[in-house]
Request: fold
Amino acid sequence: MLRLYNTLTREIEDFRALQPPKVTIYTCGPTVYDYMHIGNWFTFIRYDLLIRTLKASGFEPNWVINITDVGHLTSDADEGEDKLAKKAANEGKNAWDIAQFYGDYFITSLTKLNFTTPTQIPKATDHINEQIDFILKLEAKGYTYRISDGIYFDTAKFPRYADFARLDLDEQQAGARVEVNPEKHQANDFALWKFSPSDQKRDMEWDSPWGKGFPGWHIECSAMCLKYLGPTLDIHSGGIDHIPVHHTNEIAQSEALNEAPLAKYWVHTNHILLSEQKISKSLGNTITLEDIMAQGFSGETLRLLALESHYRSQSKFSYDAMRAAQARLVRYRNFAVLRYQQQDNATEHLAPLELLPQLENDLNTPLALAALESWLNQIELSNRYRADEITERIKLIDALLGLKLESVPDISDQQKQLINERKQARSDQDWAKADTLRAQLEQTNITVLDRPDGPIWQYLS
Ligand SMILES: [Zn+2]
Reply:
């Protein structure tokens, strides 16, 4: 039985799908104004893990991850400039080009990082009508008001507004910064539709019943959840910084309109720290996927590092930690290549490998990796195991952890030839020649271990 920590109740609960085996799941995706940093990738890797775990537990996830390409302002609380418009202005480009470039980059990177393919990756700008329709219905129900720069959601009309994030609204109102729009009725009220400034033509703007403008950030998720997954989802997910504003606002507008819970389970991932600081663009300490790959690390190494810590704890990124994860991955890969080295009539059986129970326990990846390591500790590096059993175990590991062990290649015929020559040199007691051949192999990233049943090769990195 899958168990998940539900932010709604602050408890670990049994997961019971609304209409099993189907599971509807929405993940708040990236705002595509720049390269995603590794903090974003850690979050998405963990959602991919959730999807893999759901599948292994017998569910059929319908996973939607959106692309925010309009309306996300530099402050989550509807202040400042649109992030895409700002980036476009800084680079002398059009906001549409920025959206296209970083949107495509995100989708390409999902493949690079071996993500489960989401069912849909909808863009906010492709759903303007749905958002306008959503706002019109909220307006008809009396949840909105108009001020000089847009149409806002009146949080006073939704009495449960503070419940999800357990906010202290009085304290927030008293502490509201002076720059909060003074026309707003409550500090927490948020924009559903923003008007284009009268003296300016925006790259991204649309006609609406309220005038030219663009949607607020929060309404896109509510509109796309409703369109693709229905009024009530099984799981809604995002980062913990979405809890007090973005998800609180999504709940307010969706539940006000649909009169049904937006999601049964809310799953949130914690931050990743770099040098003890939260990684964020505003702190100027971002690291991208390309930075990591330029250092010679693979996407699977980043994935393994993300899985080493539990999704609800703060994890730390460092290149030392990446090197340690890489060494760990090499060990797994060297288990996978044992299947290429099976002796004729290999009879040794592998012990069963259990990873799903740890993952079904609120996605406990540290325990799953510990189980994998202790299982590997019992395995001799030998060619006596049956290749079909090795293949079955690596398929299990790959299905759950996405480490692509099945695609680790065999060595070349030339390398095999060198191994045979070295074996011959050893039986001829020509130690000098055997050493030379070993050195030659090591230059091709292969080392040889001499075992009673013959040599075993391994990748060095
Ligand atoms: Zn969202």
The chain has three domains: 3-269, 293-407, 413-459. Residues 95 and 182 are 29 Å apart (CA to CA). Residues 293-407 form one domain. The chain is about 40% helix and 15% strand.
